[in-house]
Amino acid sequence: MSDALSSAVLGLATLATGHQAGLFYAYSVSVMPGLGRADARTEVAAMQRINTAILNPWFFATFLGAPVLILAAGGLRLAQEGQAALPWIAAAFVLYAVMVAVTAAVNVPLNERLDGTGPADALDDPGSARDRFHGRWVRWNHVRAVASTASFGCLVVALCV
Question: Which of 110, 144, 149, 105 is nearest to 130 (CA)?
Fold first, then answer.
């Protein structure tokens, strides 16, 4: 039973982390390049709406659930004999923590600053709001995408060892 529970928790941790990796990857390769090709008012309005829409239970279940599941998977593996997966689980947790730290330190404050500029259709200079947001947000989102994807990869390896 313990092996089955441990495998199930590790599988759920992998799934939740994969959801986050996919989200940040999608922003890096499609959402932000697409919005970057739109006019400034459109990008500001879209990001303001996305910033509101993403704050939902499905997002939080994976964003906050993944590190809890990763820690639980590590704890369950500690109680078992073959511990080859532990270094991979630990690495996954550290990489996931990097993604959370970047999100908290850079991307969320940029989102809040953009939201604080007021409705996009009322801005006199949406280009200025976009310029203070887009480049830095995109660069740091790439870091989130790489960190969460590497975390996901570590968990895949942990499932296999």
Answer: 110
